[in-house]
Design a protein that fits this description.
Blueprint (H helix, E strand, L loop, with lengths): L1 H21 L10 E8 L2 H17 L3 E8 L1 H14 L5 E4 L2 H7 L22 H5 L2 E2 L2 E2 L1 E14 H6 L8 H11 L11 H16 L14 H16 L12 H4 L5 E5 L3 H10 L4 E4 L14 E10 L6 H13 L1 H7 L9 H9 L6 H10 L5 E2 L7 H15 L5 H14 L6
Parallel strand pairs: 1-2, 1-3, 9-10
Antiparallel strand pairs: 3-9, 4-5, 6-7, 6-8, 6-9
Length: 421
């Protein structure tokens, strides 16, 4: 009797387990690795990135991606804490200036070349790769490139019977015609005009503003040249003071041209283009006898890097390659982060007729110019260009002579820790 009861119980147990297995209760669990990803952006960027991550996880069920994102200022502050504490995400979007800030010796981020069996680096030219190196180590890969660009509203220039300006003299000639109507041939925010004036000074002097080791090669005479030229541009109504720059004036026709980044193309000109106005990305302003592009600089608009502290470099590399080179990610991202430099991504966009428009035209002006140089992030330091504008205003408002203004500027630069060659 006991043997029959035991047999029945054994059979029932086997039946129960079999039934549970059929219903999916008893299943074989496959190991899943979790990695982290961070980026900055608006709601639109967040939405498509989350959708792209979901597609990645579907293709790679053994990898789970935990996302962290916010708008720029919050991301920048949080990134600083993470980098100092060593708690940065496995894969991260970074600003080019952070390479010098956190990895001047090349040891602040993972060496991506060690993962080249997973990340297809053949999609990037040696020049593009060089932007992500520090001390010979490949710390990051550019997503897209950026440079200050001259955008011209040809509809306004045509109204005055003027050709697209190519030289600084052309701009002064245009101002003589336009200023009676309160129209400026050109305008720009503080950093843009600062970089614009660097181009002018480098063309005139034949010198670079910085040495290869990030020291100021410009002396007081060179900065005086820039200060006096800014004052001439303002007083002769070529540009408004940078403090007076307003984006609304692009829409209402007060500005016939703008100095702005490649990435700003649609942010600045969406409304004029909707109205049917002819906006172009013009050649870089130059002086007679110089080639367009001399004195101008390019930089990565943004980059991706892998944490030096990652515990899962292989999985991080799989995600990084997907973000840079896959059609799925490219389809969703489009041109939101700029014109991609990945050959695979650009080929996909081109084959789907998505490489067009003002931003793309500005990107081509940048890419096709052999004279444009690689930007040192020091020239974008807010202390550097704000101190320069303050010095310009000392002269503009008659508080100092040009010599006094430049002496004050150089003193401020030294106090800020900038080194002169």
């Amino acid at each position: 009797m006991k043997r029959k009861l035991l047999a029945l119980l054994t059979a029932a147990t086997i039946l129960f387990l079999s039934s549970c297995s059929d219903k999916g209760v008893v299943v074989e669990q496959k190991a899943q690795t979790q990695i982290t990803l961070s980026w900055w952006g608006n709601d639109t960027r967040n939405e498509y990135t989350l959708e792209a991550v979901k597609k990645f996880e579907e293709l790679h069920p053994d990898i789970k991606v935990k996302c962290s994102y916010s708008e720029w200022s919050g991301y920048e502050a949080r990134n600083q804490v993470r980098m100092i504490s060593g708690t940065e995400t496995d894969v991260m979007q970074i600003n080019v200036g952070w390479l010098s800030q956190y990895s001047a010796d090349g040891k602040g981020y993972y060496d991506i070349e060690l993962l080249s069996d997973t990340v297809d680096l053949t999609n990037f030219s040696d020049e593009m790769i060089s932007y992500g190196r520090r001390s010979g180590v490949l710390n990051a890969i550019p997503i897209a490139m950026n440079a200050e660009t001259i955008y011209i509203n040809c509809s306004i220039y045509d109204k005055y019977g003027l050709s697209v300006p190519k030289t600084w003299d052309d701009l002064f000639s245009a101002a003589k015609v336009m200023k009676k109507d309160g129209v400026y041939p050109l305008a720009g925010a503080a950093k843009s005009i600062w970089l614009y004036l660097i181009a002018y000074a480098e063309q005139v002097t034949g010198k670079k503003i910085l040495t290869d080791d990030s020291k100021l090669s410009f002396n007081s005479d060179d900065f005086k040249l820039m200060i006096e030229f800014y004052n001439k541009l303002v007083k002769e109504s070529v540009i408004p003071k940078v403090e007076d720059f307003q984006r609304l004036n692009i829409d209402n026709g007060t500005y016939a041209g703008v100095v702005a980044w490649v990435s700003d193309a649609m942010n600045y000109f969406e409304e004029p283009l909707k109205k049917g106005q002819n906006i172009i990305a013009a050649d870089y302003t130059t002086i007679s006898g110089k080639q367009s592009g001399e004195g101008w600089y390019a930089k990565p608009a943004t980059l991706y890097a892998i944490s030096k502290n990652t515990q899962h470099p292989k999985e991080a590399a799989v995600l990084l390659d997907f973000m840079l080179n896959s059609s799925q990610w490219t389809e969703l991202q489009g041109l939101d982060k700029g014109i991609p430099v990945s050959k695979a991504a650009r080929s996909y966009l081109d084959s789907n007729n998505k490489l067009s428009g003002l931003q793309y035209e500005a990107s081509l002006v940048m890419e096709n110019n052999s004279k444009i140089s690689q930007m040192d992030s020091l020239v974008e330091d807010s202390k550097m260009y704000n101190s320069f504008i303050d010095a310009c205003n000392l002269l503009l408002f008659g508080k100092n002579t040009a010599d006094e203004a430049v002496a004050e500027l150089c003193k401020n630069y030294k106090n800020a820790g900038y080194k002169f060659a």
